[in-house]
Amino acid sequence: MNCTLRRRTALRRVATATVAVALGLSLSACGGIDRAVAEDGGPVSVKVGIIPIIDVAPLYLGVEQGFFEEENLEVEMESGQGGAAIVPGVLSEQYQFGFSNTASLLLSVSKGQGLQAVAAGAATTGESGEDFGAVVVPEDSRIKDAADLEGKRVAVNTLQNINTLTINQAVRAGGGDPSTIEYVELPFPDIAPAVAAGDVDAGQVVEPFVTVAEQQGNRQVTSNFAAADPLLMVGLYFTSDRYAQQHPEVVAAFTRAMEKSLAHARRDPEKARAILDEYTDIAPEVQKNIVLPDWPEKIGIGSVKRLALLMAKDGITESPPDTAKLLP
Known about the structure:
Elements: H1 3-11, H2 17-29, E1 44-50, H3 57-65, H4 67-70, E2 73-79, H5 83-91, E3 97-101, H6 102-110, E4 115-123, E5 133-138, E6 153-156, H7 162-173, E7 182-185, H8 188-197, E8 202-206, H9 209-215, E9 218-222, H10 224-228, E10 233-240, H11 241-246, H12 248-267, H13 269-275, H14 284-287, H15 301-313
Parallel strand pairs: 1-2, 1-3, 6-7, 6-8
Antiparallel strand pairs: 3-10, 4-10, 5-8, 5-9
């Protein structure tokens, strides 16, 4: 049967749940794109577990622009108590989707947890001194570059994770020995004050804390994300293997909407900056100066594999996590 005729025939049917499914199958057979459809024929409600940080601005922007509505998705963003709480929330289907840094997801996969990346999240800008993550020191510090971090006390928000991995790689690339660094775990808001007080020699922060630290008189010594990989995929959106298997049409719809959202944020970063008002409390004088992440439309597979190698090199895992289990 002619594909156009089949589309017209299907579209004239009553929009019950059964017919909606039949319509989706008909369109797929002709090369069309299925939207997500709930059992009652209406939109599908999904919860996304997020941390209210600048990385997720494209998600909020995409909801505002109607990209998820176009895919018949009703999206509710729910703040988790840190990335560590989002993974179990997705596995239990408290959330259908989540956002987390890439290293945390690789670590979960290495432990046998069934997770699947569904969309890019945030990436380094790749520009030294102009990235959304950096290691900062007092202006008068004798630390001048990444190699000088050797043997120093460095504050990070989480031990043995993406920030220590990338700092270590930056130190190696500069000719230093990262095994001599003493890492100290502190929440992001406490890192710049600890640096200023001399409790630590340096601290790794992300925006808006990079800008805050610089406004307080500190300076950057390395953009650790960019130094580790100029295309580093810092964060990803993900779901559980089980949800992906049971609801492939919803996952596909979420991915399409998220890719539109990322592309829109990349084309118009000032819209992404403006939407931070909707879900953060960043002061206006800070917000206008922060460096935004890059938001590539597709997942940078090569950088995910590089992170997996660094995890084994640093002893976080015995061998590189199997990226094929995480990547679509």
